[in-house]
Amino acid sequence: MTGRRIDGNRKPWLSWKKKLNLAVTVLVLCLGPIMIGVGSFMINADEELARSGVQATGTIVHFNDVTKASERRMQVEFPAADRVVHRTFAAVDHDQHPVVGSSVTVIYAENDPGRAIVPGYESEGVWVRGVGVVLTVIFGILGLLLLALIGSAVLRAKLRRRRTQQVV
Questions:
Q1: Do 81 and 110 contact (CB within 8 A), yes or no?
Q2: Percent of residues, the chain, with pLDDT higher than 70
Q3: Are the CB atoms for 98 and 60 separated by under 8 Å?
Q4: What is the pLDDT of residue 34?
Q5: Which helix (H) or strand (E) segment is 113 a member of?
Q6: CA–CA separation, 42 vs 137, rounded Å?
Q7: Best CA proximity match to 55, nearest among 77, 80, 85, 84
Q8: Residue 142: is its pLDDT beyond 90?
Q9: Shortest CA distance to 106 belongs to which of 124, 73, 127, 80?
Q10: What is the rounded average pLDDT of the residues 78-96?
Q11: CA distance 38 to 35
Q12: Which of 6, 42, 91, 146 fits a 20 to 30 Å CA distance from 154?
């Protein structure tokens, strides 16, 4: 056998740091679409509960009227068929102004009264899906910009190599 084998000394294509960086990048790029899917699933589950659940009259016991949309929530107590008073939360839009002590309709799952919604108020899935859309747009645009920069650098390097090969 002639020559020397250098396979054992060759560095791997991706080091562990580059593999970790690639894994984190892929996770960040997938986070938005995953949140869109989870939010849509939550919204569909709430819509199914609204169609097939049991109605009860609840009382608003707490409303946090703040300017930050993610913290605008109300707490509603309602009696279920099992004669136990249950509580649920609902996100409140800025154009809605519920009053503590007023009555609202609550729809709950007959076999699980802890799973309940307040019709007319936002589902938590709307927020999750909205954040997913924002993340997808932000990281999608950043990913496309990065791809364009890397692609143009590779093309410039190939053109430079061709020019140097033609000169020689």
A1: yes
A2: 90
A3: yes
A4: 95
A5: strand 112-117
A6: 21
A7: 80
A8: no
A9: 80
A10: 89
A11: 5
A12: 6
pTM beyond 0.85: the answer is no
**Mean pLDDT on 9-37:** 83
Two tokens, residue 58? 């609840």
Q: Which residues pair with 106 in a beta bridge?
A: 56
Give dist(CA 134, CA 89) in Å, integer: 25
Token pair 């509603």: residue: 76
CA-to-CA dists, residue 70 to 35, 76, 102, 116, 124, angstroms: 16, 17, 22, 19, 9
Smallest Cα–Cα separation from 98: which of 124, 76, 128?
76
Angle among Cα 137, 149, 131 to the nearest 5 degrees reads: 10
Question: Can you tell me the distance from the alpha carbon of 164 to that of 155, in angstroms, rounded to the nearest whole number?
Answer: 14
Q: Where are the alpha helices (DSSP H) in the chain?
A: 16-52, 124-167
What's the CA dihedral at 6, 7, 9, 14 to 10 degrees?
Answer: 140
- The answer to whether the beta carbons of residues 23 and 29 sit under 8 Å apart is no
pLDDT tens readout for residues 51-85: 999 999 999 999 987 777 667 889 999 999 888 99
Return the DSSP state at 122: B
Per-residue model confidence (pLDDT) at position 163:
82
